[in-house]
Amino acid sequence: MTPTASRRSSAGSGAPDQRRRAIAAVNVLRGDYERWAARCYRIRDKFGRIRPLLLNPVQREIGRIERQLLAHHDQARILTLKARQGGVSTDQQARALHQIWSQPNFDALTLAHTREDTAKLFAITTRAIEHFPRELLPRLGDAQTSEISFPGLDTKFFTGTAGARRTGRGLTIKRFHGSEFAFWDDPEGVLGSVTPALVPIGSVVQLETTASGFGSAAHQFWLEAIARGYTPLFFAWWQCDPLNYRLPLMADDELGFLEDEERDLIARHGLDLEQIKWRRLKMAELTRSTFLTEYAEDAETCWLAPGGMFFDAEMLKSLRLKAPTPIETHLGGTLEVFMTAAVIGNTRGTGPAPETIVIGADVAEGIGGDRSTFSARTRSTFRPVATFADARMPPKEFAAVLNEWGRKLGMAMLIVEKNAHGITVLRHLRDDHQYPLDRIYHRRPLDGPADNESERIGWATTAESKPLLLDAGREMFSAAKDGYAGVPPLEVVRDAFGVRRNDKGKIELTGKDMLVADMLAWIGRSSPDYVFF
Predict the structure, then answer these.
(1) Which domains are assigned to the chain?
(2) Which end of the chain has fewer CB within 10 Å, C or N?
(3) SS3 of 191, please?
(4) 136-141: long-range contacts, CB 8 A cutoff, minimum separation 24
(5) Any bridge partners for residue 42, and if so which?
């Protein structure tokens, strides 16, 4: 065989091997999104440079949760609450393009909350297509204002505006990304129009947002995320951008005295002084409430706007950071205990100075929604002893729980709100459980004597008595701030964040069940002994 013939033979045999290697390499990219992003996807960074998409920890974590949900449930539903600049939208745009590039016959959809943001998100995708490796780019469909398609794969990626007429109609959606979900005009309505187009197996819904107003539809969706089948994820500002959210110190002692919450951020989350300096200056630039919304530090205060709040927001923020941690739970996690068994035992009279316990109780119907709650506190120091919350417990069973734990805690003093189903609980305590009447709160008449004992038993929240209850809450939080009372449990503080005046100046306590129970405990603690007959 001549050298020329030999070379031709080698070239001929090498071509299939080269093709196989190329196919294998493409298959790797189809199954490995992170490698594909680094190899094929280009973004513009904060300095205007075009560079590969190298995933940051936030993007990796969201992807990890998505894979985990798909493996266990054949679908993924994720709601991400975040600070600004975490790269979540960029990552989701890239994941959508990766899907239509790697999986034939399925489409992807992104919805933003304004047309301007829709254009920005679509620009991310068009830029990626412009810089996509030519040898790996399938044939593109006709140019569209907000759509990328690969006709040979029968796939499309549509980027639109939430609430617009076309929200992905005609698409077979396997991946849906909702950007700034909290700012959509009708978040649940838009979701309702999109979800019928999702494929039943393997579909992904990724909702991501910064916080909007307290009590908004999106805030309620966040609070109910797990019940709605979504996995809630939260990323604080120091997680979203650990490199740029900092300022160098000019001197070691430049910051001077650190506030309590600054020390807490350092202790709990490992922040350094450069990050604290950036936080101070950014907060001064934006105002505190705007900073905590745009650059979230926790999943509660980011929803706040101080306007209309009944309780002082700064005081609640400070108390939230100091809230006690339960040391044990009972009754399937509905009852949390904050004191050691030795201290609780002391309340039974086994120690040298038994401590009286007061228990405030708010009663619900037990069919979901509002919860039946109680808060047990020491009377002298008002330290948290235990809390209970259950939305599904009927009043009769709740009376049994109050009886059991009231007796466990040394025949605690019970202050039960008697409105609606509360009177049922009081009757069961008195008649079925024979709970001593002298340990059950009896309302002291505000404007004259009551006719009989049954009218006086329990606390009735009325137009006349509600201000007393709210004033008790203010006293309770102020005493905790000043160190004269124990710091309330976290659920109490969370409820207090939501107590607001409406446009008519009226204050509602509906749904603030743990707060109401704790305020009732304060009422009982502050009441003279003769109110407990």
Answers:
(1) 32-235 (3.40.50.300), 260-305 (no CATH), 324-531 (3.30.420.240)
(2) N
(3) helix
(4) 136/26, 136/29, 136/40, 138/101
(5) 52
